[in-house]
Prior knowledge:
The complex is a heterodimer of chains A (589) and B (330). Chain A has helices at 4-42, 53-70, 75-86, 91-97, 106-118, 122-125, 132-153, 159-186, 192-209, 215-258, 263-268, 273-286, 298-303, 308-314, 318-341, 346-381, 383-403, 410-425, 430-472, 541-557, 563-586; strands spanning 509-514, 523-528. Chain A is mostly helical. Among the domains of chain A are: 4-153, no CATH class; 263-381, no CATH class; 498-586, no CATH class. The N and C termini of chain A lie far apart (93 Å). Chain B folds into two domains: 3-208, Rossmann fold, CATH 3.40.50; 219-323, Helicase, Ruva Protein, domain 3, CATH 1.10.8.80. In chain B, the strands form four sheets. Chain B has a five-stranded parallel sheet. Chain B has a two-stranded antiparallel ribbon with strand order 3-4. The interface between A and B is medium-sized, with 31 and 29 residues.
Amino acid sequence: MKFTGDLKKFGLRVRFLRLWRYAAIGLLASVFLAFALIVADNFLLINFPILNSGYVVVAGLVLGAVTGFFLPVSELALARSVDRRAGNQDRLATALQKQDAEELFTEVQQQDAAESLQQITPKAIYPFSFGRWQMAACASCFALAAVVWVVQSEILLSTDQKAQKSKMEQVQAAVERIVKQLEVEDQTGDRAAEKKLAAELRKFSREMERGKLNQEQAMQKAQKLAEEAKKLTEQRLEKTAEKMEQIQAKVLQEKFEEAGGKLGDLQNLKLDKMQMEAMRDLMQKSGADKMPSNNLDSKTMEALGLDNSASEMMRMSEQQKDALAKAIAQEQKNIQEQMQNGNLTAEQMKALQERQEMLNELSKQLQLSEDVMKALRELQEMKEYKELQEMLQTLQKATDQIQNGEPLTEEQIKEMQRQMEELAKQMKDPKAREAMRQAMKEMIEQLKSGQLDAEAMRQLMGMMGAGMSGGMGLNGMPGSGGRDGGAFQGEGENQKGDPMTLDGKGNPTAVRGSRDENRGTDAYTEIKAPTMVGSRTSVPYKEVLPQYKKSAESAVNNNQVKPKHRQRVKEYFESLSSGGSSSGGKGGK
Amino acid sequence: MKGLEAAEWFRNTWGAIRQEIGKVVVGQEEVVEGVLVALAANGHVLLEGMPGLGKTLLIRSLAEAVDLEFSRIQFTPDMMPADVTGTNVFTQSGGFEFRRGPIFANFVLADEINRATPKTQSSLLEAMQERQVTLGGKQYSLEEPFMVMATQNPVEQEGTYPLPEAQLDRFFFKVLVEYPSKQVLADIVTRTTAGEMPTINRVATGVDLIQARQITREVTISPDVLDFALSLVVASHPEGPDAAKISQRYVRYGSSPRGAQSLVTAGKVYALLGGRFNVSKDDLKRAAKGVLRHRLILNYESEADGITADQVVDGIVESVEQKDQDPVRV
């Protein structure tokens, strides 16, 4: 084909013209999209800062231009178009379509088409023009720019509104910083709860930025978010505690073996219900229950996997064990005699035999507990054990500290890491050592996260207190929770919730009854009553709860609480802990 | 003869014929062109116009320019088919001899054809289509080139017999002969009332005409342009799916396939005359009125609304053009 080369110049021109047209279309579409996003943002359906409209517009422009330039242009369509625009009497299209025909005029027609094309310039038939698309695109851009300018310049706001907006923006900026902090933290692993909190905070931030909330709503929402953050922190600390227990168990089990103990003995050291009752019965008869017992750390027992029966045996002193052994021996002797007398029925005989076997087993378990106790004593004498105990205490202290709203210092965190590293070095099994390091790393992160969440929300509530009282006129509004020194309370005027002002609602209610069969048949009386007006709470409830809970757990583990009441005690403190989150928010009342 | 030479020869020959005709026929450019296009396309022409507008002069001049036999038949209501085709007459020698009628000429002017009865009008059908005459069971071929140019008066309708559709369809072109402008009229009067009438020279032969027709058929037409021609014809069918709106409203019957053939052939002649080797859509648009105006049978609504066949053709062309958009949108 003689003119296809020349036709390509027209094709290029068409591409540029399409670029010009589609860029305008893309620009127009993107401006509409930007408007839609702004509206959606205004209704808080999405988060779209108004200045981001610029990016959307530029993206639309570029996308349109690229699309226009790379849209395919067929040769035949181009030839038809050139014919049409140049008044070329279908010369090019005919030449293209009939190029392979063997007719009288085929050759001269091709020549004629080529000559006709040489007389046409792309510029002449495809001129650039400022058409309707370009005009529409420019007009929409101006409209968008005007909207952005009006919003950004605050020209429509009064002086008071401007001042209020400025203050709200400061609070919003603070919230935004917190959100970013939370989002950075999110990247460390599975942090669905943090993500949710961050998203809600961001939404809250935008609502404040746009003045969507009134004073009361803002405070309510802030309190709600604070409560969620608090729950999050508590969950973190619970996880930390679990990790601590796992680490402790691993270390103790290894050290126990180093001290000559056998983990198999620990598993075998177990009494069934009958044996337990028999043992207690014999102890009572022998007076061993009134003798002093060993004071062993319940957590160590738990970490070694000892159950209550084993723990009970482990806590027996030498004196108690001797008395019990004698009682068992005496009992066995009595049974032997009864069996030798021969005046027994088959059933009585069988019962005596079973009793005999049970006493034998009890005797064996006592001996086993003696072996375990020996290893345990060795363990307690070990330097590493003491270090471990110290470190666990440090960790517990740190957890309590965070729970009480006091942030950990860098030095504290570094010291904890150092101690953990030391502990890990003492592990002999490389795999166990690595697993432990990993667990410790996660634990530290949990602690930090919990601390960050708490710290972030403290900042937020602090800002809310200042922002609301200054910008929104909520002077004197109690801080979230109203707890003295609580983790989520405001500063300044909202800093302290006065317990004297906490007047209760409703009347004291006494509930009497008896427990169900599973829990025993004791009669009880519960009195549910509000805080008495005029009474004075010297220590905040939340501060004493962990301490009391710890004491209760210790009492349960040390068999100071009867087995039938243990579950009840546990449930009571769990209910206090779970109810604490809601009572924290209402604590000021 | 190669393509370029053939095309140049065609243009020169036709230019010469036109120039010779132009010596005696003043103005009427479109009419002359229409007749010459039909001549090149091997078609017949129906001229419609008032008496005294030079129709006979035009045909006679054309015959003189190519030095071919010319005959004129003045149609009247009492005319019989034998008066057109000829008849067998008894001779003194005792046999019958076929006496050729006026149809046996190269150029036949059928003047005021609508004054003859349909029977006589239909005697032209075979001659126009088959180029032969059948009489007494014997066929007589007409000499090529053969062309019928019929005239009819649009105003005097009393005692006339409008041409049937089949007859009309056999005319390649229907050309409207308009009154000349004042300036042209002045020229006519000046030429015809002073001095001698100019002499027409022979510039082509019958063989040239036949060769010209062959060259015409060789002109290239692209599928796009052919599709445009077919679209014009199809758009004239009021019941068809591609009918133009104006056809649906004013046309009773659209163009026959002969209309499409005539459009393309006329387009080819216009292309050659325009110095091109391919038919363009403009050529087809140019030929559309001449080809289609007598092939469209309009309905009563068109008569009531005063819509002419030319207006309908314009509407059809416009409708087809609207669908034929620029394939490259920029």
